[in-house]
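Feature request, filed as a ticket because there's no other form

It would be nice if the structure record came with a short human-readable summary line next to the tokens. Right now we just get the raw output. Example of a typical job, pasted below so the devs can see what we mean:
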Amino acid sequence: MTQKVAVLGTGKIGEALLSGMIGAGWSPADLLVTARRQERADELRTRYGVTPVTNAEAAEAADTLILTVKPQDMGTLLDELAPHVPVDRLVISGAAGVPTSFFEERLATGTPVVRVMTNTPALVDEAMSVISAGTHATAGHLAHAEEIFGAVGKTLRVPESQQDACTALSGSGPAYFFYLVEAMTDAGILLGLPRDKAHDLIVQSAIGAAKMLRDSGEHPVKLRENVTSPAGTTINAIRELESHGVRAALIAALEAARDRSRELASGTKD
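Raw output as currently delivered:
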């Protein structure tokens, strides 16, 4: 890899990207990082051999800037970066709810911006990263973003108008599964199992079910029906889920997440 990439605001997701990129063949010499605390910058240098720099130095030296700060901090970061970002820099945003127009209005006219919504399974190289082009981003810019985020999982291109829905489904998605596992573990304890055994049973079942969904090509309804025998245990459990409105609650929850993503976007327009 010959292009220099800078990760600005290197938290957990930013560090996962560094680790994945190095594993995929990037040289640490071509990777720059910024961090709010000097101790954090030193830690990243020691762990990965990357070069800590200031935000301004990153903007001037790197070919690609990956901005991983929180949405509410993005305006301040852009104010700092704007005088130092040449128009040929690729800017990749990982901030939930912040549209590419927010960056385009604050950077030099023509600056290519790509918006990416990834999720925490990037920490184990199983992320789902959703990628959208801004006004000036080309197919080549999108391919470069896919190359970077493909180092930590799967990528999918979507129109930016679908980003809020993707944030609700996959950006926040891991939390829903953790919540479900938490509830099922409590149920296992209620049914008389020790917590550690209930946890192992559920986690392995989740892994197996996810692999079947990914690899079989079957519709989830078909896979569920394969487990659901007439008058059996599974259909009784599903009847209870339906009677308690679990399906409707999930739909409402995802709509709420989408709406909050839109609110975050609206809040960045001022």
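Something like this underneath would help us a lot:
The mean pLDDT is 95.
The CA atoms of residues 72 and 268 lie 8 Å apart.
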